Structure to design on (85 residues):
């Protein structure tokens, strides 16, 4: 599937278990390899990320699909649990 990159901006991002992560603010692109390497997320879910910043960048390899919303793997939830232990 091909889509204009700008059509993805502002999409809501959820984990594959249905947890809201945030909104897509921007993309991190590796110019030399001509591929997306990360998602810059704003309006982040503060229950998932214990940060004081307004956003976070997650690896693109976590993305499962992108259409009307973006779905990422639930590794964020697993990371949070490990951090709390």
């Amino acid at each position: 599937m091909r889509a204009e990159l700008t059509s993805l901006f502002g999409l809501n991002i959820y984990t594959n278990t249905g947890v809201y992560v945030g909104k897509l603010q921007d993309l991190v692109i590796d110019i030399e390899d001509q591929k997306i390497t990360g998602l810059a997320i704003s309006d982040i879910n503060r229950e998932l990320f214990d940060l004081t910043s307004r956003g976070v960048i997650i690896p693109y390899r976590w993305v499962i699909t992108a259409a009307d919303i973006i779905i990422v793997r639930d590794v964020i939830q697993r990371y949070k649990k490990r951090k709390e232990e």
In short: The radius of gyration is 13 Å. The beta strands are 12-15, 20-30, 35-42, 55-59, 63-66, 70-72. The CA atoms of residues 43 and 67 lie 19 Å apart. The longest strand covers residues 20-30.
